[in-house]
Specification:
It is built from 16 helices and 14 strands. It is of the alpha/beta class and about 475 residues long. Bound molecules: ligand F0G. Ligand F0G binds next to α4 and α5.
C-alpha cells in the first residue's frame, strides 16, 4: 500500500516556541515597520517564510559534530573533514571556505573579472550581480524562453538559453572570464536546470575555452528534480546526480546556508591551480586563513555533516513534496502561482491576483502586508519594489510581481503548511479589497530592505 501522508523524515527533540499575536497587534506592528516586512521584529512573526537562507534546523548529528570540532587556526581537523566532503561531492581540486555565498562571489569576481567583461548566467542572484557589477563588468541573464511564461509547465524552466550563450561567447571573445549556471534558479522561481542543459553548456564553453561555474546553493534540490523529471536518472542517487552535475564544471560558489543545512558558511571550489592560488591570496585579506575562511571549526563541522544529510532521498522527497502540496492546495483555492512550484519556495503571482493594483503601487508588497496582518506569515516581494528602481533614477515595472514563500529546511511541519494554505485561501476571498502601497522614503540602493511605505488609500484593505 502506497500511503499518501507527507511524513517529515525526522522526529523533533528540541523545540522553539512561536508566538501568537492578535490581528490588531500585527496591524500595529506592520504600521510601525512602515509596511516593510524586513523591518518587523521576528518575534512578531508566526510563520517566517522570508528566506530559506541560514534559517534551517540542524540535526543531532550536526550539533554532535560541532561539539567535537578542532578550532586550530591553521590546518584544523575540521577543515580537512569539510574539504574532503566538498571534494567528494564536487570532484573539484581546491576548496576555499568562506563565511557565506556572497564572500565566495566577491573573491571569485574580484580575482577573475575585469572592467568591460561579461558574465552570463541563467539568472544572476542579486549578490552575484552586485559583485560582478562592482568590478565594472556586466552580469548578463540568459534564461530559457520557457521561463518567461509563469504558467508554462516545462520541467526545467531554470535552464540557460544555449543558443544565446553560444552567441555571446562567439561575439565577445576574450571578454567572458567565466560562465555561471545557478542551480536551482532562485531569481527565476526556484526552477531546476536539466543535466542535459549543464552538459551542453559545458560543451559550448569548452569550444570557446571559457570555464563553467555552478552557483550551487541548492544543488541537492536540483539533483532531486533531475531524478524525478529527466529521462535516465530515476535509478541514480541524488549524490551520483550531484557528482555528475559538478563533473561538467571548472568551479563552484556555494552558500552553505541553503543546501549545506547550516546557519552560516559557504565555499569557493576551483580546479585551476593558478586561479585557486590567486583566490586564496584574496581570501586572506578579508575572510581569515585559508583553512577556516571566516568560519569557526564548528561551522565547518556543521556544513560537512549537512552536505551529507541534504542528499538523503527521504529528506529531499519530503522537502520538495511539501512545497508541491501547498501549491496544489493554493491552486484548488484559485490563488495564482508561478508554476511548476520551486524546490525551496512558492511564488504567488500578485499581478494576476490583484489586477486592480498598478505596478507602481507594488501589488506583491500589498499582498505580503495583508498576509502578515491576517495570518502572521512573512514572505518577500520579488517585484517592482525590489527591481523597479534603475541607477539612472527612472522607474520601470519588474518582469513579474511575485511574493515568494521560502521554506526554511526541516523547521515547519505539515500542519504549519496547512495553516499557510488556509490563510492564503482566506486572503484570496479578500483580494478585491486589497489596496496598494506607496513609497514615502527610500535609500539609493537595495531599497526593498529599508524603504518606508504607506497605504495609498489610507488602509491596506478597503472597509
Ligand atoms: N546565490 C543564490 C542563488 C542565492 O539564493 C543566494 C542567497 C546567494 C547566492 C548568496 O548567498 O546569502 O550566503 O551570501 N539567497 C538568499 C535568499 C539570501 O533569500 O534567496 P549568501
Amino acid at each position: 500500500m502506497q500511503f499518501q501522508t507527507i511524513l517529515e523524515p525526522f522526529r523533533v527533540r528540541s523545540v522553539e516556541p512561536i508566538r501568537h499575536t492578535t490581528r490588531e497587534e500585527r496591524a500595529h506592528a506592520l504600521a510601525h515597520a512602515h509596511y516593510n516586512v524586513f523591518q518587523l521584529d521576528a518575534r512578531d512573526v508566526l510563520i517566517d517564510l522570508l528566506t530559506d537562507s541560514g534559517t534551517g534546523a540542524m540535526s543531532a548529528a550536526q550539533w554532535g559534530a560541532m561539539m567535537q570540532s578542532d578550532e586550530s587556526y591553521a590546518g584544523a581537523r575540521s577543515f580537512h573533514r569539510f574539504r574532503d566532503v566538498v571534494a567528494a561531492i564536487t570532484g573539484l581540486q581546491h576548496v576555499l571556505p568562506t563565511h557565506q555565498g556572497r564572500a565566495a562571489e566577491r573573491i571569485l569576481f574580484s580575482t577573475a573579472a575585469r572592467a568591460g567583461d561579461i558574465v552570463p548566467n541563467n539568472t544572476h542572484f542579486d549578490t552575484t550581480r552586485a559583485n560582478i557589477e562592482d568590478r565594472g563588468a556586466t552580469a548578463l541573464d540568459l534564461p530559457c524562453a520557457e521561463s518567461r511564461d509563469p504558467q508554462a509547465l516545462h520541467p526545467f524552466k531554470g535552464n540557460i538559453d544555449l543558443v544565446a550563450l553560444e552567441r555571446v561567447l562567439a561575439e565577445h571573445p576574450g571578454r567572458v572570464p567565466l560562465v555561471m549556471i545557478t542551480v536551482t534558479n532562485n531569481s527565476g522561481g526556484g526552477q531546476p536546470v536539466a543535466m542535459a542543459n549543464i552538459r551542453e553548456a559545458r560543451t559550448i564553453c569548452q569550444r570557446h575555452g571559457v570555464p563553467l561555474f555552478l552557483d550551487a546553493c541548492r544543488f541537492a534540490e536540483n539533483a532531486w528534480f533531475i531524478k524525478q523529471r529527466e529521462p535516465g536518472y530515476a535509478d541514480r542517487t541524488p549524490r551520483e546526480i550531484a557528482q555528475e552535475m559538478f563533473s561538467y564544471c571548472d568551479g563552484a560558489t556555494m552558500s552553505a546556508k541553503k543546501d549545506g543545512l547550516a546557519n552560516i558558511g559557504g565555499f569557493l571550489a576551483i580546479n585551476d591551480d593558478d586561479l585557486a592560488q590567486r583566490c586564496r591570496n584574496n581570501l586572506i585579506l578579508t575572510e581569515g586563513f585559508v583553512t577556516y575562511g571566516g568560519l569557526a571549526g564548528y561551522d565547518l563541522e556543521a556544513i560537512a555533516t549537512g552536505l551529507t544529510e541534504v542528499l538523503d532521498e527521504e529528506y529531499l522527497r519530503y522537502r520538495v513534496r511539501s512545497i508541491a502540496y501547498l501549491a496544489e492546495r493554493l491552486q484548488a483555492a484559485d490563488v495564482p502561482l508561478l508554476l511548476p512550484p520551486g524546490g525551496h519556495a512558492l511564488y504567488l503571482d500578485a499581478r494576476r491576483l490583484l489586477p486592480h493594483i498598478p505596478w507602481n503601487e507594488y501589488p506583491a508588497c500589498a499582498l505580503g502586508a495583508v498576509l502578515y496582518v491576517e495570518g502572521g506569515i512573512r514572505a518577500v516581494e520579488i517585484g517592482s519594489l525590489m527591481f523597479g528602481h534603475h541607477p539612472d533614477g527612472t522607474e520601470h515595472p519588474a518582469p513579474h510581481e511575485l511574493l515568494r514563500l521560502a521554506f526554511p529546511r526541516r523547521v515547519y511541519t505539515q500542519s504549519h503548511v496547512d495553516y499557510v494554505a488556509e490563510v492564503l485561501a482566506y486572503v484570496r476571498t479578500r483580494a478585491a479589497s486589497i489596496r496598494g502601497l506607496k513609497i514615502i522614503e527610500q535609500p539609493s540602493a537595495l531599497r526593498h530592505f529599508s524603504a518606508k511605505l504607506a497605504p495609498v488609500h489610507g488602509a491596506i484593505l478597503a472597509p
